[in-house]
Design a protein that fits this description.
The complex is a heterodimer.
Chain A: H1 5-30, E1 34-38, E2 44-46, H2 52-68
Antiparallel strand pairs in A: 1-2
Chain B: H1 2-7, H2 11-14, H3 27-40, E1 44-50, E2 56-59, H4 63-78, E3 87-91, E4 96-102, E5 105-111, H5 117-132
Antiparallel strand pairs in B: 1-2, 1-5, 3-4, 4-5
Helix pairs in contact in B: 3-5
The chains are: A mainly alpha, B alpha+beta.
């Protein structure tokens, strides 16, 4: 007997949700610090932390993060 | 280099705002826009809105430090290429920094790690677009 149509739909949706959750887990585990600049037209450039511009961006960003502080717990 | 940028003042940095001339926005409009951004973005830790000359229109915290640190960030970003940068996104272990120039204004936001970049930039862009379109802005 073929599965009921709503079962197929539910299985598919939970399959997508599992995939998304796994993607987010991998993203959290493997994401490294980055500095990205975007220009007109959507062009983007990555800058490594050990390069001159990248280093300056990380220093400036660090100051802003320090200034903003931690989000107060609600 | 960042200290040099600070010493040389901030006005030159924000004259690179790529589109339109500097917008004049009332400070109370900017304050409400910032409050709205904080409400819309659960990951937001702090933010500032600046005019085209680099002056702080609204900020969560110390306006002078936001002005100086935002100027340093844009200065470092603009040194990368001859073209003025439109968006800056830096992700670190401690948090993420987003900076955007739009409609003659600039916004800088600090968020928790893993904030969704496209949504954060979208919210910031909408905020600046609304502010630039309000009465008082050219």
């Amino acid at each position: 007997m073929p599965p009921k149509p709503h079962r197929v739909l539910l299985d598919r949706v939970s399959g997508y949700a599992d995939e998304a959750a796994a993607y987010m887990r991998r993203r959290r585990a493997f994401r490294r610090p980055f500095a990205r600049l975007y220009y007109g037209g959507g062009r983007g450039e990555d800058h490594a932390a050990d390069a001159e511009v990248g280093g300056e961006l990380f220093v400036a960003a660090g100051r802003l993060i320090e200034l903003a502080g931690q989000k107060p717990k609600s | 280099m960042i200290q040099e940028a600070r010493a040389s003042g901030t006005s030159a940095i924000f004259t690179h705002v790529p589109d339109e001339t500097s917008a004049r926005v009332p400070g109370d409009s900017a304050e409400s826009a910032l409050a709205f951004l904080a409400e819309m973005s659960p990951d937001l830790r702090g933010a500032a809105i600046l005019d085209g000359d680099g002056a702080v229109l609204a900020a969560s915290g110390e306006p002078e430090r936001w002005r100086d640190d935002a100027a340093a960030l844009f200065a470092a970003a603009d040194r990368a290429e001859a073209e003025s940068v439109e968006r800056v996104h830096v992700g670190t272990e401690q948090g993420e920094v987003f900076a955007l120039r739009h409609a003659g204004l600039a916004a800088v936001a600090v968020t928790e790690r893993f904030a969704l970049a496209s949504l954060t930039f979208f919210d910031m862009r909408m905020l600046l677009r609304d502010l630039a379109g309000r009465p008082g802005a050219p």
